[in-house]
Design goal:
single chain; 626 residues; elongated; binds adenosine-5'-diphosphate; binds magnesium ion
Length: 626
């Protein structure tokens, strides 16, 4: 019940649907209740005519009565048919609206969560959870709204009518409900526990499924298809034994409930038949009471169905509400928070002006000669006991290029994560484009940076759409201009459909170099004050790298840039090199300065010049190619 009121209160906007569905279902129940009375009158009229003194007059009179009673039955049935279908229509639309609202909110909520949440989640699992939660919840609500209120009405009416005719009958009927509900509640706890375990298995399988399909090349290249299938299948195998346990428990209890119900109904029939035999009920009344009593049997059964769907809904919605209760990233933009509480899937995409604000801040910083990036004794760790960065300090002024050099796993990408506000520094101060990262919303912070990651990560869709991801308001001319600067225009035009060529999911139909150049065009189009390149070309072969490098140089022109390079030649003309060792800054200086000390950069320069195997190996630890 708490779950129900919770869902209803979070989807208050749907109240007209709730009322409509309830009214329709009540009307359906009322129309159904009329029939037994009409049938009683018809039965009595027929019986008295057939067993009476007879005569044409009596037959004609009874025929007329029966005729009108049948018309009455027809009207009642037609009303029921009509209203039932109107209610069904309202129920369908209500369900679709609810799915729209709950799904949109879930997606918005996920996108507002701190990066840490995603560190420990598998995509497919998140999706499976969404699907099940929402299906179960909407199914339950539909079943509930369609059945619960007519059930109440029917049961109430049946009890009153039977009590009026013979109160012990009503008493027998009344016993059924608490007994049934008690036994159901008893069943539910264990059922839910097993359902939770089953869902865990299914979610794990779903998560792996999405991963395997998403990285199908890796799966195939390691010929691990069968291993993947075995893993996937084994999860479902586990659900079988759980289902056996769950279902046998449910059905044993259901047999018990059903048995008790059958015994009570046998008693009811016995009473009905004996009373009629002794002349207390007319035949018509007996027929009517049998019908009414059978009407009460349905709600009892319905109740077990309702309890069943309610259990699924509770088990499923627990995950949903768990996610909805998580705290969003601190200082999430208000529009995103609003979307996570939206009453409709039609979310408006409003420009927050974050990009404009970041450019203004960058201008102000430049005018004051203040830094664009300023790390001041910044420390950070993902897990408390394992420091990744300690006391890191360096600055980049407007238009400057800073290169980060350090061993693989030394914390270079972590610095990028901090710059983008994915994680907050645990100590020290970090200001980006004049704002402390703790004082500014994630969206404002990120609007100021354009990032080219090592993995281009494109979306399915056309090349044009992918480039325009950097700025949805860009004109076609601007898109082409960005592609030209990224050295991508030529190869794009070589496709038969040019900019309208669709690329597969994550750009599977493009070569690594092509994808990366589209990613660069996307970053160029974003035109943000701060540029971040995290090993942007390390996934490419030498030829593709040269093509991309040209685009990157265009992108860096006059822009403040933080570069993580894997080739020393590409950072030989940066303004500052920051070398990292054990999460601490080892040296900071210009390439020329650092070349003459005996620090990491000097060592790397020496290693690059060397051809010995040991030196090559050492270079690899820095992710650096010769
Ligand atoms: N999301 C994360 N959660 C926990 N530890 C992480 C996470 N990302 C990176 N690390 C750890 O932080 C350290 C620095 O990683 P990273 O910044 O990616 O190194 P680099 O980019 O210099 O190769 C590594 O030890 C890595 O295992
Ligand atoms: Mg890295």
């Amino acid at each position: 019940m708490r779950l129900l009121s919770r869902i209803l209160s979070t989807t208050r906007v749907l109240w007209p649907f709730y009322i409509g569905v309830i009214v329709c279902s009540l009307a359906t129940a009322a129309a159904t209740l009329v029939s037994p009375f009409l049938i009683r009158d018809a039965t009595d009229a027929i019986v008295s005519t057939v067993t009476g003194p007879g005569g044409d007059d009596a037959v004609t009179k009874a025929t007329r009565t029966v005729f009108w009673l049948v018309i009455g039955l027809l009207i009642a049935d037609l009303t029921q048919t009509l209203v039932h279908n109107v209610g069904g229509y309202l129920g369908d639309v209500m369900t679709a609206r609810m799915r729209e609202i709950l799904s949109t909110r879930y997606f918005a909520k996920l996108l507002s969560l701190p990066q840490r949440y995603f560190d420990s989640q598998v995509t497919g699992t998140i999706i499976a959870r969404l699907e099940r939660s929402i299906t179960n919840v909407t199914q339950f609500l539909q079943a509930f709204s369609n059945n619960f209120f007519p059930m109440l009405l029917t049961v109430g009416a049946v009890l009153v009518i039977t009590a009026w005719h013979y109160w012990p009958l009503a008493l027998l009927l009344i016993i059924v409900f608490p007994v049934y509900t008690f036994l159901t509640a008893l069943t539910s706890k264990r059922w839910q526990k097993i359902e939770g375990k089953k869902n865990e298995q299914i979610d794990t399988a779903g998560g792996r499924f999405a991963e395997a399909i998403g990285q199908v090349k890796v799966v195939r290249s390691f010929t691990s298809e069968l291993r993947e299938i075995a893993f996937f299948g084994s999860r479902f195998v586990r659900t079988i034994s759980l289902t056996r346990e769950q279902s046998s428990w449910w059905h044993r209890m259901d047999a018990l409930r059903g048995g008790i119900l059958n015994v009570i109904f046998a008693g009811i029939y016995m009473v009905l038949f004996l009373r009629t035999l002794h002349g207390d009920f007319s035949l018509g009344t007996m027929v009517m009471l049998i019908q009414l009593v059978n009407m009460a049997r349905q709600p009892v059964m319905m109740m077990s169905y309702l309890v069943d769907t309610a259990q699924r809904a509770i088990a499923g919605s627990r995950d949903y509400f768990h996610v909805m209760e998580l705290d969003p990233e601190s200082r999430t933009q208000p529009e995103l928070l609003a979307a996570a509480a939206t009453d409709s899937g039609e979310v408006e995409v409003s420009s927050t002006g974050a990009a404009r604000r970041s450019r203004e801040r960058a201008e102000a910083q430049k005018a004051e000669g203040a830094p664009i990036v300023d790390f001041d004794r910044v420390s950070f760790s993902y897990d408390e006991d394992k420091p990744v960065l300690t006391d890191v300090s360096f600055t980049a002024y407007s238009g400057q290029k800073v290169a980060l050099v350090g061993e693989s796993g030394g914390g270079k990408s972590t610095i990028v994560n901090l710059l983008l506000g994915f994680y907050a520094p645990s100590a020290g101060q970090l200001s980006v484009i004049g704002s402390d990262v703790n004082d500014i919303s994630g969206s404002d912070l990120r609007a100021g940076s354009a990032v080219v990651f090592q993995d281009a990560a494109l979306f399915s869709g056309t090349i044009r759409e992918n480039i325009a991801y950097g700025n949805p308001d860009a004109t076609d001319a601007e898109i082409v201009e960005a592609a030209r600067k990224a050295n991508a225009d030529t190869f794009i035009r070589a496709f038969a459909e040019g900019y309208d060529t669709t690329i597969g999911e994550r750009g599977l139909k493009l070569s690594g170099g092509q994808k990366q150049r589209i990613a660069i065009a996307r970053a160029i189009l974003k035109d943000a004050p701060l540029l971040i390149l995290d090993e942007a070309t390390s996934a490419l072969d030498t030829k593709a790298e040269r093509e991309v490098q040209h685009g990157l140089e265009k992108l860096m022109e006059g822009r403040t840039t933080v570069i993580i390079a894997h080739r020393l030649s590409t950072i030989s003309d940066v303004d500052t090199i920051v070398t990292l060792a054990d999460g601490r800054v080892d040296e900071v200086g210009s390439p020329a300065e650092l070349a003459t000390t005996d620090g990491i950069y000097a060592e790397l320069l020496r290693l690059t010049a060397s051809a010995s195997a040991a030196d090559r190996k050492r270079l690899q630890q820095f992710g650096i190619k010769g």
